[in-house]
Amino acid sequence: MADIAPVLKAVVPAAGLGTRFLPATKATPKEMLPIVDKPAIQYVVEEAVDAGLSDVLMVTGRSKRSIEDHFDRAYELEEALRAKGDDERLEAVHESSDLAIMHYVRQGEPKGLGHAVHCARQHVGREPFAVLLGDDMIDARDKLLQRMIEVRGQHGGSVIALMEVEPDQVSAYGCAAIEATDEEDVVRISDLVEKPAAEEAPSNWIIIGRYVCDPAVFDVLEKTPPGRGGEIQLTDALRTLADMPAGQGGGVYGVKFRGRRYDTGNKLEYLRTVVQFAAERPDLAAEFVPWLREFVRQHDGVGDAADS
């Protein structure tokens, strides 16, 4: 196999309207909703940087300017904190602006994830790249993206992250038909289906929001017609790549992920994520966890009573 180019760039699609969180997202991007005291999107960028990807392209849309501001310097705020001697908060403010080399491109129309990824073509060029969805968070202790980059280095082609779910959940996700390889956590993808009915799903392994893509995906996306929902689906492009020869950038592999994932794209999971992060914070846990225990004790059975 020819030398496989290293993965150095990350693409973070963040152009969605965030309608599930209205009215909070009327003027604030859903990606900026805080997980305790840090916006969700910062955790995603930190994950990319932790995997060695310090060149990050954010694909944004209208009303997303606050994302750019968050990763930029805030000189007036910094001076105010410095004057107060508030070094702890000053360091936290610097952390976001010093994280990565940030770039931005606008997705003019909401034409789907595949279209958002295609918007990165000029910036990425002919290099492999990672895609991290902004409302999917992977625990920093679980090195999923590093493993995916490693698999890309071994096999070439593209790599997707997979999680196993109950059969009644597959219709909410893209689903993969898989073939075993010599490594327990790595499979070859033979087919991908976007949001299949449970009885038509090829497996219980769904695609979650992490991808490592061969640059050949751009040519495929350019020719991919709108699919489910009238949008250009990245899943459809990857399905095409799965049938293409390795010498043309084809081949798709999956990494089976059994770690900690937080889906901040819906209200219930968002609330669970905030509570879990707060309960694990050394500066908050000593007071928050006892309060939470007492709150649960006082409300134990309330939900059951409402359902009956």
SSE order and pairing:
Blueprint: E1 9-13, E2 34-35, E3 38-39, H1 40-50, E4 55-60, H2 65-70, H3 75-84, H4 87-97, E5 101-106, H5 113-118, H6 121-124, E6 129-132, E7 136-138, H7 144-155, E8 158-164, E9 174-180, E10 186-194, E11 205-213, H8 216-223, H9 234-242, E12 252-256, E13 261-263, H10 267-279, H11 285-299, H12 302-307
Parallel strand pairs: 1-4, 1-6, 4-5, 8-12
Antiparallel strand pairs: 2-3, 6-11, 7-13, 8-11, 9-10, 10-12
Helix pairs in contact: 3-4, 8-9
CATH topology of the largest domain: Spore Coat Polysaccharide Biosynthesis Protein SpsA, Chain A
Briefly note the structural class of the backbone.
alpha/beta
Kindly report the spatial arrangement of strands forming the biggest sheet.
Answer: 5-4-1-6-11-8-12-10-9
The chain-level mean pLDDT equals 90
Order of helices and strands: EEEHEHHHEHHEEHEEEEHHEEHHH
| Number of DSSP helical runs | 12
**Content of β-strand:** 15-25%
Number of domains: 2
Considering the protein shown, what is the CATH homologous superfamily of the largest domain? Spore Coat Polysaccharide Biosynthesis Protein SpsA, Chain A
Q: N- to C-terminal separation?
A: 62 Å
Taking the sheet with the most strands, its summary is: 9 strands, mixed
Query: How much is the radius of gyration in Å?
Result: 21 Å
Q: Any idea of the CATH class of the largest domain?
A: Alpha Beta
Number of strand segments: 13
The helix content is: 25-40%
CATH architecture of the largest domain: Alpha-Beta Complex
Low-confidence stretches: none
Shape: globular
Oligomer: single chain
